[in-house]
Write a structure and sequence with these properties.
heterodimer, A: mainly alpha, MetI-like fold, about 75% helix, globular, B: alpha+beta, OB fold (Dihydrolipoamide Acetyltransferase, E2P), six-stranded mixed sheet, five-stranded antiparallel sheet, 21 strands
């Protein structure tokens, strides 16, 4: 009836890996969404936002099918590693990345889009390549939005249930996350254990969000221009 | 079709033929200009919406013209025919934006050095330090744009653009928000800088005073077209088109008839038709070569008219006209009064004179206008 630290550690690990991957994948995607003038861009935006409204079981089901040994991706992975992606930590990471994608990409692209275009133009007239402009101007001016995106992705992955259940099942130390653990405890009528774990998750998530929003409060003000004196 | 100019080496002159159409809400706008700018200041003058900023954006590469050709010295920056369109970052065009667009998260020093990434660090530091010192902002090196004054920001933006070693400099109303003293200083700094560099500087403004202060050459833009070019004196003092007249600050423009010609005195009397039948105003104006009874146009700046509460006597001014105040409006730090004296005239005065004279709509006033404040134009 104690807290299942193994599943807690696994969940934090999953959330960290997913957040890290979403930074790498999400930044270019968000940049493209914020600055592309492609006429069909809205299709990409809708696809990225889909996991927000899609029931996690639906997403989990399709990811499971896609990762399974019947699909080309699953077969390719199997020929490569000798086992399927389903019911592994890697499979869980892939599912969670898709599931949390909009929670990272939308704040990222909103932050990029709110960077003053004149400032970007100024960077270009001073000879800066788009890559230099991105790292020297766009990223620093988007820091609050980037932090928000990473934290939302992290917190969202911490608490996911449906996708994990569909893809990962319930293998202790491999795919058994905190929310699955809580569900199990409740099913077994171990309310005290469920409460302890749930409370831990609640406090942890609240602490992370508080720290981030507290920090976020001070940074952007320094950078805003006052009226011309 | 634009014909290619002969390209001389080491001549930094900017030549631009720019055509660009926009479908702006409900009305179309078409920019269609052709000019060249030799090293030194070329002032682009015109009301807002005349296409000045769009033209600068085309030269900088931020906007792509529909047709035309832009050449800076020996470098073709844009040519619609041969599909040359050098990207913004490779054009080497310095641009000081109207709202400056400083990098808010970088210090003054980092802002200044931004365009020098290709130089070694020590050289960057030295050049930036020298420029900041020259512009008297070296004590602000570690400040961020939000922490310094408007005038200081203007100088940072200028330093940043100059340090990128541009082949053309574009300035979009860079001094609009500054007082006359600061303005004059920055213009001096720019002149000094350009004596060594000798690049074309396109300077956008809608301030008549700046045109006169800067002016070597002025190009007047209106609705996307060049309607006049020349020295400030040619363009402003002897306006030959009404649009230029309005731009040049003639708030009062009247159609008039030459009533009497006083060749011996060097003046004429012109008749302005009044609003009511049989009412007219006579104005003594400088003499131009015009027949009695011919039609002319008279422009009078609102700031050149004096207001008096009683009929003034013993003045050199030849035109003293009675009228009635229609309205007294405050515009920023200035008062704009409308006076009906047979015709309606706009008069500008200071807040202090309004208060000293207790000007109220409906009050009787006298307008005093010097002969040489009446500018005659062809109709």
């Amino acid at each position: 009836m104690s807290i299942d630290w193994q599943s807690f550690r696994l969940t934090v690990e999953l959330a960290l890996v997913v957040s890290a991957v979403l930074v790498v994948v999400g930044l270019p995607l968000a940049y493209w969404i914020a600055f592309s003038r492609w006429r069909w861009k809205f299709l990409v935006e809708a696809t990225v936002a889909l996991p927000i409204v899609l029931p996690p079981t639906v997403l989990g089901f399709y990811v499971l099918v896609a990762l399974g040994s019947q699909s080309p991706l699953g077969r390719w992975w199997q020929s490569f590693t000798g086992h399927t992606l389903a019911f592994t930590f890697t499979g869980l990471v892939i599912g969670s990345i898709l599931y949390s994608l909009p929670f990272a990409v939308q704040p990222f692209s909103a932050a990029f889009a709110s960077v003053d275009r004149k400032v970007l133009a100024a960077s270009a007239t001073l000879g800066a390549s788009p890559v230099r402009t991105f790292f020297r101007i766009v990223i620093p001016l988007s820091v609050p939005g980037l932090i928000t995106g990473v934290v939302l992705a992290f917190a969202h992955t911490m608490g996911e249930f449906g996708v994990v259940l569909m893809i990962g099942g319930n293998i202790p130390g491999v795919t058994r996350t905190v929310s699955i653990d809580i569900y199990d405890q409740v099913q077994a009528s171990n309310y005290a254990a469920a409460n302890a774990t749930a409370l831990l998750l609640l406090v942890f998530c609240f602490a992370v969000l508080t720290a981030v929003y507290g920090l976020n409060r001070t940074t952007p003000k320094l950078w805003t221009m006052g009226p011309v004196k | 079709m634009p014909t290619p100019e002969p390209e001389k080496l080491a001549d930094p002159t900017l030549t631009a033929i720019v055509r660009k159409s926009f479908a702006v809400a409900k009305r179309g706008f078409c920019l269609d200009v052709e000019f060249s700018a030799a090293p030194g200041f070329t002032v682009l003058f015109g009301p807002s919406g005349s296409g000045k900023t769009t033209l600068l954006d085309c030269v900088a590469g931020l906007t792509t013209p529909g047709a035309g050709r832009i050449v800076a010295g020996e470098r073709v920056l844009f040519d619609a025919d041969s599909q040359v369109n050098i990207p913004v970052a490779k054009r080497g065009v310095g641009y000081v934006f109207q709202d400056l667009a400083l990098f808010p998260h970088l210090t003054v020093e980092q802002n200044a050095e931004y365009g020098m990434a290709h130089l070694p660090r020590s050289q960057r530091k030295n050049q930036a330090a020298a420029m900041l010192q020259e512009l008297r902002i070296d004590h602000l090196r570690q400040q961020r744009p939000a922490e310094i004054s408007g005038g200081e920001r203007q100088r940072v933006a200028l330093a940043r653009a100059l340090l990128s070693d541009p082949c053309v400099l574009l300035l979009d109303e860079p001094l609009a928000a500054l007082d006359a003293m600061t303005k004059a200083k920055i213009i001096d700094d720019l002149r000094r800088w350009n004596q060594a560099h000798g690049i074309p500087i396109l300077y956008v403004t809608h301030s008549r005073d700046e045109v006169i202060a800067l002016g070597e050459r002025v190009i007047v833009l209106q609705d996307g077209h060049i309607i006049a070019r020349g020295t400030p004196h040619q363009v402003l003092s002897a306006p030959h088109q009404e649009t230029v007249a309005q731009l040049a600050g003639f708030e009062n423009i009247f159609d008039a008839t030459v009533w009497l010609v006083h060749e011996d005195r060097g003046t004429m009397t012109c008749r302005l038709p009044g609003g009511q039948a049989g009412v007219f105003v006579l104005l003594e104006t400088p003499l131009i070569r015009a027949e009695q009874g011919s039609h002319v146009r008279v422009g009078i700046r609102a700031g050149d008219i004096l207001l008096a509460l009683r009929k003034p006597e013993g003045l050199s001014a030849r035109n003293v006209i009675a009228g009635q105040l229609l309205s007294v409006e405050r515009r920023d730090m200035m008062i704009s009064a409308r006076v009906n004296c047979g015709v309606e005239m706009e008069v500008h005065l200071t807040l202090a004179s309004r208060d000293a004279l207790h000007l109220m709509p409906g009050g009787e006033v006298w307008l005093v206008i010097k002969t040489y404040s009446c500018h005659l134009m062809q109709r």
